[in-house]
Amino acid sequence: MTIQKPIYNRLALIGTGLIGGSIARAARASGAVKSIVATARSPETRRRVAELGFADQVVETNIAAVEGADLVIVSIPVGACGPVAAEIGPYLAQGATVSDVGSVKKSVLDDMAPHLPPHVHFVPAHPVAGTENSGPDAGFAELFVNRWCILTPPEDADAKAVERLADFWTALGANVETMTASHHDLVLAITSHLPHLIAYTIVGTANELGEVTESEVLKFSAGGFRDFTRIAASDPTMWRDIFLTNKNAVLEMLGEFQEDLSQLTRAIRRGDGEALFDHFTRTRAIRRGILQIGQDSAAPDFGRAHGPLPTAPIPAPYSSDAD
Amino acid sequence: MTIQKPIYNRLALIGTGLIGGSIARAARASGAVKSIVATARSPETRRRVAELGFADQVVETNIAAVEGADLVIVSIPVGACGPVAAEIGPYLAQGATVSDVGSVKKSVLDDMAPHLPPHVHFVPAHPVAGTENSGPDAGFAELFVNRWCILTPPEDADAKAVERLADFWTALGANVETMTASHHDLVLAITSHLPHLIAYTIVGTANELGEVTESEVLKFSAGGFRDFTRIAASDPTMWRDIFLTNKNAVLEMLGEFQEDLSQLTRAIRRGDGEALFDHFTRTRAIRRGILQIGQDSAAPDFGRAHGPLPTAPIPAPYSSDAD
């Protein structure tokens, strides 16, 4: 069901993983584009995309994909964006908008911009949404609903082109915000990159302990650890590129984190219960803020399902005591 | 509906928060006990427990609660367990089992044991289950289903008393494992205490940055940060006591974590993509292990709900381009 006039005629998707595949599904479901042409690097992925049918057409090359497209979205690990821009640059249509979905924006801007001709609009974007799953099967149309999409247009960007891309993301259910690429990279360093780094670290630490077995770590993970494992299961290539390309902001946030961790460590070592209690009380308020603005599930435990109580009677050898 | 013969006649619950309140609901629903008497420190909580009706009787003092009880479970912050043991010790019934639900076991054993008379069985326990919510309203009967409950009986504990308490927890849906108090404290330091400390730290760090506003942190939290905020919203008193009483194991695990974090930090600083990729690939496998043994939801994003796409047509000023 088309619910609105198309915002673009022809969307070319380079990359069809969790994000690219979700864009295709959402763009079609919302009627935000008239047609979708998709491509992916590997023949297996292209075959799978054709089977899933979320694009009108699956082509073999990036160059074939961008032909006649008025919106091109590159949805691949940020380290690969520069070479792809160099490849497609000469084949982009007059007035087309070129965008991406990378989690780092300054390096994408620097890598892609030099390869794009003056007759296209380059408007980098980052939808802050995702799950721990990867690949064309992982996507779904509702992924961006009520999530934020950050646009980081260059200073000289065409205002109308930016607005048009904002409308596209709005049609996909997202809220749109605009900021500079550098500020984006700092904001995401704390809200996304550092949490991932910490999660990757602690999950690795738990796996390599001599005194606690892996089986124990898995069994007793409900004590808190399992919340970290979800994001530490994210795509390794994507995350390698993020840390390589947003190095400075990540190291800066890591420095702040280390200072705060030292403070709490000192409080533990000294037995300073008051300092611990005060800190733990403050952090509760932040969780409340996230729930209030609808950026997480308010259901306890993220709304995880809890199974029913056992129904089969278990042996009760204590009846003599209990009766 | 009673599904089995009662394992104990009369359960006395001292403390009626998330864990105590869930024990009461589960013990009643499963028929694991004949009757439940509960008490709590504050008159407001006792009133609320009486309203909620998950205990057969609500009494004003710990001493009144334990009278005639063959199972006493102390469900309060671990720092308060010693004084309560001293208070109830002289009033415990012959042959009663005394247990707790504390997240630290060595200090609870040391604090409570000296106050308990030789005619009772002391079997400390730790159900590794919970949510970020606190108080008598937060509990529910299914909280322990398919979670692990760790028993840490002293070396000279009566085997039958231990088995009986294990059956009680099994009736509440839990899997039961037995280990020493010291080993428990080490296992939980990595699976629960360190993750909480890290989460409390990073949530605090994010809140105090000069360059990124609190509003930005909240809005873009879907990038990973929000997963940390859930456990950083846990009860501050409980967690203060955990870090004060399990200091050595927490500091040991923190040391391991710091070494690993230094290694990843160095890889980022040096641009060593291979080291990052290898690490991130290993941590994926751990997530799979947790899903395989049913200790977390396999649904993407913890099964968080995603709202529908917008249905109201948005203005499409680009029809001339798109048609």
Automatic annotation (TrEMBL), chains A, B:
It is an enzyme of class 1 (oxidoreductase). Pfam families: PDH_C (PF20463), PDH_N (PF02153). Residues 301-323 are annotated as: Disordered. Its EC number is 1.3.1.12. Keywords: Amino-acid biosynthesis, Aromatic amino acid biosynthesis, NAD, Oxidoreductase, Tyrosine biosynthesis. One of its GO terms (molecular function) is prephenate dehydrogenase (NAD+) activity. The keyword Oxidoreductase applies. This is prephenate dehydrogenase. It comes from Variibacter gotjawalensis.
